[in-house]
Amino acid sequence: MAFPFSFHFLFFLFSFIRPCFSDPRATSAALICSNRTAAPSDRQIFISNFLSAMDAITPQIASRRFAQVIEGTENSSSVFAFGQCMDDLSQSDCELCFAQCKTQIPRCLPFQKLTRGGRNFLDGCYLRYDDFEFFGQDLSPEDKTVCGERDFDGNSTAFKSNAVQVVRNLSVEAPKNNGFFMGFVDGGNSTVYGLAQCWKLVNSSSCRQCLENASSAISSCIPKEEGRVLNAGCYLRYSTQKFYNNSGSGTTGKGHRRRLAIVLAVCSSVLVSLMIIASCVFFGKRELARRENERKQLGALASTVNKSELNFKYETLERATNYFHSSNKLGQGGSGSVYKGILPDGKVVAIKRLFFNTRQWVDEFFNEVNLISGIHHKNLVKLLGCSITGPESLLVYEYVPNKSLHHHIFNVENARLLSWEVRYNIIVGTAEGLAHLHEELDARIIHRDIKLGNVLLDENFTAKIADFGLARLFPEDKTHISTGIAGTLGYMAPEYLVRGKLTEKADVYSFGVLVIEVICGRRNNGYDQEELSILQMVWNLYTLNKLPEAVDPRLGGRFQEEDASRVLCIGLLCTQASAESRPSMPTVVKMLTDNAMIPSPTQPPFLSSNTELPFMRPENHHSRPESSSHSSGNSMTVTLLGGR
Ligand SMILES: *[C@@H]1O[C@H](CO)[C@@H](O)[C@H](O)[C@H]1NC(C)=O
Ligand SMILES: *[C@@H]1O[C@H](CO)[C@@H](O)[C@H](O)[C@H]1NC(C)=O
Ligand SMILES: *[C@@H]1O[C@H](CO)[C@@H](O)[C@H](O)[C@H]1NC(C)=O
Ligand SMILES: *[C@@H]1O[C@H](CO)[C@@H](O)[C@H](O)[C@H]1NC(C)=O
Ligand SMILES: *[C@@H]1O[C@H](CO)[C@@H](O)[C@H](O)[C@H]1NC(C)=O
Ligand SMILES: *[C@@H]1O[C@H](CO)[C@@H](O)[C@H](O)[C@H]1NC(C)=O
Ligand SMILES: *[C@@H]1O[C@H](CO)[C@@H](O)[C@H](O)[C@H]1NC(C)=O
Ligand SMILES: *[C@@H]1O[C@H](CO)[C@@H](O)[C@H](O)[C@H]1NC(C)=O
Ligand SMILES: *[C@@H]1O[C@H](CO)[C@@H](O)[C@H](O)[C@H]1NC(C)=O
Ligand SMILES: *[C@@H]1O[C@H](CO)[C@@H](O)[C@H](O)[C@H]1NC(C)=O
Ligand SMILES: *[C@@H]1O[C@H](CO)[C@@H](O)[C@H](O)[C@H]1NC(C)=O
Predict the structure, then answer these.
(1) Mean pLDDT of 120-128
(2) Contacting residues for 99 by C-beta, under 8 A, at least 6 apart
(3) 93 counts as catalytic
(4) pTM for this structure?
(5) Fewer beta carbons under 10 A from the terminal one: N or C of the chain?
(6) For 36-45, 130-139, 230-239, 593-602, which range has the lowest pLDDT when averaged over its residues?
(7) Which domains does the chain have, with CATH numbers?
């Protein structure tokens, strides 16, 4: 039985190590956010269209290396999106680069207003979204020229003539060659490499025009070692480094070779093991002893395969959701969209299509899935497994039938009005789930995105927290924060928002907002100046000693005033501006369930601020995904070697 398992595993291994051989060139050239903004009223629709557009792009990139998408029919909030890889990238590098590109572009969605356009230029791929049809546009006012930092150190006369020549040549050749050309000019002891790429959304005459503009714009860079022009219709780059055509093992440096050697060693040792097993099977019982020995050696592999029982086949999940048919879509969140699926054994599950691609850190992802899937609590949605080998990353969760708290509190039509008791139980359940994440696990988990939409309800209206642990999968990635914010204005603790400081107390803050929303039946418009925030309103009533007036009027007074005051008081305690003053989740659970004394909140809740937040500025994000893909490849191989 070891045979098919190992074969499967080998296949697995190959799909993981691919990044070791490649260079997705996912270095950042520029992220350009448009300065037109959306009115607050259609922000939600626009974000939802934006997320759908990002979803729709991935499969197109996977099948034809470029994507062109229009989402939304209302002209005021349609989203147009376009993405493409440079022609010299291999298909797998293309997908890697694009995954990176996609995770960065939400940085254009800021707090106050919604930027209606953004372009992310990486050196291997490009992604743009906007609220108008820019397909066919060759030049635009937002076009940018980005020069390197250092001057060329050498014969500058020769360098200059080489650079001018390569750029001119590229802009002439690319329009004739399907919009792409790369090459170098060397002479006088210096070599200048260059690459020109027109986007598939322009025709060849626009391509020529765009590159002519680019080649004259790029000459302003020329004493510098590096120059790039980032136009609406094309990309042009020169450099003293050979940056293109790095796929394949031919041009690798020392580090690459070592990795290659390790990987080959692992692969061949796996192959050898396979052959030995094959021959054992062939020679039958005579070799029993040796076979026993081999089985021991394969123990490490077997345990990895066992872990992979969490792994679902992409095809299975695709079929379970009827190829992600829109009728099976349950909802959309910051990290991806969720579909209802029925597995071959009849089990109903929820399948989340991740907006973020995990290819680059597959092993970490796997460990996390493993960890999270081990968490059992009545108030936490169970993670059943994942799929990481297909074109997109998927997570499989238990299906929770009765939608989210958001649906029940805010979607007034056809949602059942939740009674006081139900609301109270939901609050207690949510608190218990969070307390479990914070305190009762070996690895403390900070949720980071507690909100009504992430509290699901089962058939008995028991609260189940969704999406926990997801944030751990994207360490220190600000993107997660910004997409979170895009959908979740008003839930973020001040210290997290402003300084990125993250402790359990950030969840406590979000929980406090949730409590107040559930009790008042109103949304907290955290950063909207037009309306008095409900936190402010509840605080005002608290100071007047009239807290019960804040309770959702739809309840028609069917609740105990004392209970209402207690719960709202807890909400206020949790939303105090200073993290130290907020109670921990286990304390909150005690306050809710025992009839314990509730201390008085001493500080008014953190209220809306109109200041722009520094870490949201789009410039200066230089992430290097190559290193992370390499290290994941490395630790993968090291783990295997260690196991043998
Ligand atoms: C949408 O387009 C229609 C016609 O094309 C126009 O009458 C209407 O004002 C537009 N609405 C908005 C919000 O731009
Ligand atoms: C190329 O596209 C531009 C802009 O869309 C258009 O004005 C031009 O007529 C097109 N040229 C050809 C040959 O199709
Ligand atoms: C930004 O907006 C201002 C006016 O609102 C405009 O003058 C300026 O050209 C815009 N800049 C860009 C890069 O679009
Ligand atoms: C550009 O470079 C190619 C290949 O090096 C060469 O064949 C071609 O003649 C050059 N074209 C121009 C306009 O210099
Ligand atoms: C720089 O290169 C040019 C042309 O290749 C050559 O004529 C010149 O002598 C060189 N200068 C130096 C200082 O090497
Ligand atoms: C070419 O460059 C090398 C190293 O950069 C230098 O040692 C050598 O002198 C240069 N030769 C000429 C002819 O400039
Ligand atoms: C390139 O096009 C942009 C946008 O039309 C224009 O502002 C810029 O001056 C042009 N640059 C050159 C060098 O022609
Ligand atoms: C790119 O690499 C391939 C194989 O490694 C080679 O055949 C081709 O000539 C290279 N192209 C350029 C422009 O260097
Ligand atoms: C793998 O799982 C099987 C049953 O699912 C178990 O019998 C076996 O001991 C496991 N092997 C390892 C190495 O964990
Ligand atoms: C919630 O579950 C109850 C049964 O417990 C069911 O009657 C009701 O229709 C469900 N509501 C929604 C919105 O699914
Ligand atoms: C819902 O409540 C009923 C009755 O208490 C119980 O039998 C059932 O198992 C509960 N369902 C879930 C999913 O907990």
Answers:
(1) 94
(2) 356, 357, 359, 360
(3) no
(4) 0.52
(5) N
(6) 36-45
(7) 23-135 (3.30.430.20), 403-637 (1.10.510.10)
